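Sequence, please.
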């Protein structure tokens, strides 16, 4: 079950895999995924390469701050820095709709927009833009796997199945 409290909330899950749960990896496992992404970055279409390089570099920086001694699983996230011009460039590419070699998805809300691009073997770049008047902020994360953002959601006009509280509230 996914719980959403406002338009800017990150997807949160309370169920097992095959839902919106973020996977957990040890330092070594995450390092392997990032190395694999770096090795496959040539698969990224030319119009998207600069954005994915930002994401892979952010992942490498997060690894530099980690420790090999940390064996505990962690939900790794790498945040890449976007500004107005970077956002506008990605927005222009994403609005084309079809990008050969990549899967893209755009989700809009009254004051925000989320652009997601996935390239197999490299990973997902998910960029949140808060576009309220006078206060534009961007938050981009790179995940070296296919993000749950690409799953069908009620936010994508997937029909909502309403259930009475008595059915699931016990």
């Amino acid at each position: 079950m996914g719980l959403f409290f406002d338009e800017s909330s990150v997807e949160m899950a309370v169920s097992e895999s095959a839902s919106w749960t973020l996977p957990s990896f040890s330092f070594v496992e995450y390092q392997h995924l990032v190395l694999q992404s770096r090795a496959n970055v040539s698969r990224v279409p030319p119009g998207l390469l600069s954005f994915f390089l930002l994401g892979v570099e952010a992942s490498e920086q997060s690894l530099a701050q980690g420790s090999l001694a940390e064996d505990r699983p962690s939900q790794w996230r790498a945040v890449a820095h976007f500004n107005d011009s970077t956002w506008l460039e990605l927005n222009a590419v994403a609005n084309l709709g079809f990008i050969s070699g990549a899967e893209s998805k755009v989700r809009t809300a009254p004051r925000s927009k989320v652009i997601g691009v996935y390239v197999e073997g490299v990973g997902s770049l998910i960029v949140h833009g808060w576009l309220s008047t006078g206060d534009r902020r961007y938050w981009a994360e790179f995940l070296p796997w296919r993000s749950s953002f690409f799953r069908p959601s009620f936010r994508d006009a997937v029909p909502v199945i309403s259930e009475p509280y008595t059915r699931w509230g016990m």
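Strands lie at 2-3, 12-13, 78-80, 103-109, 112-119, 123-132, 135-143.
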